[in-house]
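for the recovery benchmark. tokens below, seq after
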């Protein structure tokens, strides 16, 4: 078993706390590594070193900083197989899905290759007599990224790439359940020419996170994880005067209209509901067919597709549909929620509880689970399940289906399947969710847009990656400059128009 280290000033540094967390291969249950949990003193030391490195990094012109990302992107591509293997081993997702995880992070790195264009300020010449007015974007200093287990490459890259391309140094605190992919990425960006100390990977749990939130040098915190922790981090960071954007959990609905292509809708529901074992913040966990006939036909199409899904370890081959969930506790919680659905009166059509795979009896596998006749009062609807469970909530009309989403506390992603442009436009305009798919199940915006939910799925201002990230990781200085040729002398005491 490997003992992991922090990555500080470009080198591996052993933890000194004596506290560790176990990293397990979820397909076998076996402990594959132990990860040190940093003390506040270790965090403070990493931040201090990052602050020294950041002063020099901020002086590097944006074009040269961007070149590090060109090389980094190339190295990620060259190491795609190794990254995916490391990711699948610690997370459990299939190898093709792990490559997708790396790929969607790589796309953010690609945008950072053009970061200078996103870091431009504004200029108005002759704003008054001899007066020019301009703004410049400057880095914040040391910033922190705190990331969840479910996208071990993509989300650390969402955090580190725009922050560093903007001239900041980053303290990355990856999930203690999937910390190894972050370490690989740190090595690769260092090989790409990033100066030591600009990216520090510091492992830890609540103690390390609190040390980030209370550290006076850290200027901004970008968080992704569950809603209660997002809300906590947002509150404590903001109280301490930091910029914060904290993205939380989700409950994503897909409305299926009577005029929808039901084969395509069923395929989309299976992919978006069960891909990555449902452990995606953009997973569709609620199908909302409109009208009895739509619901009956949809269920008829869904059941055989779901029964055919192959659940297996990532090593089982490319035809595997999804792997285990992350921990034994996650499996137990998901199975408990399935039982609550049965107890509260939902119709269980496929039951994923108690799944055992030969040779992998200690793995955390949950079979694909489909419920019909779920109602909004049931726990299986109210809770974010974060597992391979799709609930069907039948609605009589489009308005009822829309109201179900409007009443939900989360607002991360949603989708509608319909052949009618008017309904689709109305839905996009009225739904109070940050990312909307029209005949598209997982509407994660491409990296030159920005990503973010609404309501209890996000706390703070601005979205992550894309143009918003460059705003989040920089502060704008506004400069008013006057040169005196042709300007008369005279004292002015009144506040007045510049002209
Ligand atoms: P989590 O909230 O348990 O952990 C996220 C991070 O917070 C980890 O780095 C963890 O170490 C830290 N943390 C955990 N407990 C803490 C505490 N008490 N105090 C301070 N820090 C703490 O989330 P997770 O289980 O790793 O990830 C799954 C969740 O993330 C789901 O709810 C999912 O919807 C959400 N998610 C959201 C998005 C998004 O963009 N909205 C993207 C991916 C995942």
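predicted aa per position
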């Amino acid at each position: 078993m490997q003992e992991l280290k922090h990555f500080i000033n470009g080198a591996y540094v052993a933890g000194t706390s004596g506290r560790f967390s176990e990293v397990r291969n979820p397909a076998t249950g076996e402990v594959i590594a132990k990860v040190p949990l940093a003390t506040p003193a270790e965090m403070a030391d990493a931040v201090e070193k990052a602050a020294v490195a950041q002063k020099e990094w901020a002086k590097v012109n944006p074009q040269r900083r961007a070149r590090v990302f060109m090389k980094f992107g190339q190295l990620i591509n060259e190491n795609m197989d190794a990254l995916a293997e490391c990711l699948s081993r610690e997370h459990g997702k299939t190898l093709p899905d792990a490559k997708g995880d790396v790929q969607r992070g790589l796309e953010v790195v690609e945008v950072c290759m053009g970061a200078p264009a996103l870091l431009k300020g504004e200029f108005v010449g002759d704003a008054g007599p001899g007066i020019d007015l301009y703004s410049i974007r400057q880095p914040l200093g040391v910033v922190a990224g705190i990331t969840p287990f479910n996208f071990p490459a993509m989300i650390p890259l969402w955090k580190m790439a725009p922050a560093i391309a903007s001239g900041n140094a980053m303290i990355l605190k990856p999930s203690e359940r999937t910390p190894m992919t972050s370490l690989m990425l740190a090595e690769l960006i260092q090989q790409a020419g990033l100066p030591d100390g600009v990216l520090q990977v510091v492992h830890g749990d609540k103690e390390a996170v609190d040390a980030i939130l209370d550290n006076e040098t850290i200027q901004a915190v970008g968080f992704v994880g569950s809603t209660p922790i997002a809300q906590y981090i947002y509150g404590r960071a903001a109280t301490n005067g930091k910029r914060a954007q904290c993205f939380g959990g989700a409950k994503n609905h897909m409305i299926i209209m009577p005029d929808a292509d039901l084969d395509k809708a069923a395929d989309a529901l299976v992919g978006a509901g069960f891909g990555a074992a449902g452990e995606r913040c953009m997973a569709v966990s609620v199908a909302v067919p409109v009208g009895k006939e739509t619901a009956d036909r949809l269920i008829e199409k869904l059941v055989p597709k779901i029964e055919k899904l192959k659940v297996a370890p990532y090593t089982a081959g490319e035809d595997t549909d999804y792997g285990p969930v992350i921990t034994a506790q996650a499996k137990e919680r998901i199975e408990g929620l399935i039982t609550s659905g049965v107890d509260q009166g939902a119709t269980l059509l496929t039951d994923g509880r108690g799944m055992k795979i030969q040779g992998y009896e200690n793995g955390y596998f949950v079979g694909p689970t489909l419920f019909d006749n779920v109602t909004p009062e049931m726990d299986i609807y109210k809770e974010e399940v974060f597992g391979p469970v799709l609930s069907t909530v039948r609605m009589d009309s489009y308005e009822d289906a829309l109201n179900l989403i409007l009443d939900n506390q989360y607002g991360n992603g949603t989708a509608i399947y319909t052949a009618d442009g008017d309904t689709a436009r109305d839905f996009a305009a009225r739904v109070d969710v940050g990312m909307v798919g029209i005949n598209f199940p997982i509407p994660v915006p491409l990296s030159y847009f920005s990503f973010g939910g609404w309501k209890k799925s996000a706390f703070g201002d601005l979205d992550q990656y894309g143009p918003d990230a460059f705003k989040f990781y920089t502060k704008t200085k506004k400069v008013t400059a006057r040169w005196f040729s042709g300007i008369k002398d005279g004292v002015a005491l009144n506040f007045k128009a510049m002209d």
